[in-house]
Amino acid sequence: MIIRYALNLIIALALSSVHSAAQTRQPVPASIDSLIQSRMLETGIVGIGASLIIDKKVVWTKGYGYADRESKVPFTPSTIMNIASISKTFTGVCIMKAVEEGKVSLDEDINTYLPFQVINPNFPNEKITLRHLATHTSGLTDRNPFYGDSTYFFGGNQPEPLGAFLKDYFVQGGKYYSRDNFLPAKPGTQRDYSNIGAGLAGYIIELRTGKKLNAYAAKHIFTPLKMVHSGWSVDEIDIHQHTKLYDKKGDSIVQIQLYQGTTYPDGGVRTSVQELSAFFISLLNEGSYRNTRMLKKETVKEMLRFQYTEMNKPGNIKLDKINQGIFWATKLGATRIGHNGADPGVRTFMLSDLQKEIAVIIFFNTSLTEKEEGKYFDIYEDLYNYAKELKGKQLNRR
Predict the structure, then answer these.
(1) Which residue ranges form the domains of the chain, and what is each CATH number?
(2) HSE (side-chain half, CA atoms, 13 Å) at 172
(3) What share of the chain is helix, strand, coil (3-state, %, to 5)?
(4) Cystine design at 49: which of 20, 123, 363, 380 (Cβ 3.0–4.6 Å)?
(5) pTM for this predicted structure
(6) Cα(3)–Cα(152) distance, integer angstroms
(7) 285-319 pLDDT, tens per residue?
(8) Distance CA 165, CA 195 (A)
(9) 3-state secondary structure of 293
């Protein structure tokens, strides 16, 4: 979606500045509550939910502000929200489960799986693979304005079928087709963050498993991890537990309608801080959470493995800035791993340090202005520093 693409550009710029600022940040004040509440008052953020994970266990979780400002419903760790691009990590797990089951290969030409052909007109003889899609090196781009205009559906309106949209986008003669949907770069040679690539990857999993992505995820992720309040659409969750969404317009905070997206594999998952914590711990813990295994150890290892090396990295990538797993990436100057998300009324973080010792999950139900983007990262860093403080106290007690 073009909105999500623009937000990710803003995020990328903010990440580098926030990382630099973090080097001189003062210690977290004694009251993390006071700090977060003051930042909310300063920015107008309506609701926040967060959890801190230390050594693969949730040690602190809390909500601030409101899930419904008008009715004064508090935002809690069990409040449900769409998590935007963090959803790609769920699509990544579905891909890897299908690999385990022998349904797909990361390195097969995707055209062997599709009922239509996806061919980059700039390089018609070069194959595109699931690994390319999952590492944002496929050469497929969503910069086409039709993408954003056609994929957000507000107020209960239903998106068009995913397969039909993708065919119209990638096949010559389709109503969304353009040569601008393809980069002038061979697969594997340039990283370009691609929501449409995630949508296509999810569609391939649906074709190869014979199940819609929501059903496949329910079987292999939500049910095993007891994520009973999570789903991939508004219809699958308890709407009474879902937060309202808000957008900052000038000095005003306005409510926006809930929405769904055509290319839901790129951002459609709805869950809570509480339930997302179980998912994140499972990934950080080699696929296991409370004696429940989501993926095999070797599968998780491949999913999280840094796919770029000096020998095969995209030409526009510096490894000390970013690296990439299967829909899983380094962030904040390659000092964190996980994923972020941004959509209208939604800002989310699911990040761990490289040693997988300290992890932070945060949900915001309010979109800020572009110039205030860094405020989200300020709150993230406050919570990360608070987690380090908690970990230090744990070590001192041993």
Answers:
(1) 2-397 (3.40.710.10)
(2) 5
(3) 40, 20, 40
(4) 363
(5) 0.91
(6) 9
(7) 999 999 999 999 999 999 999 999 999 999 999 99
(8) 13
(9) strand
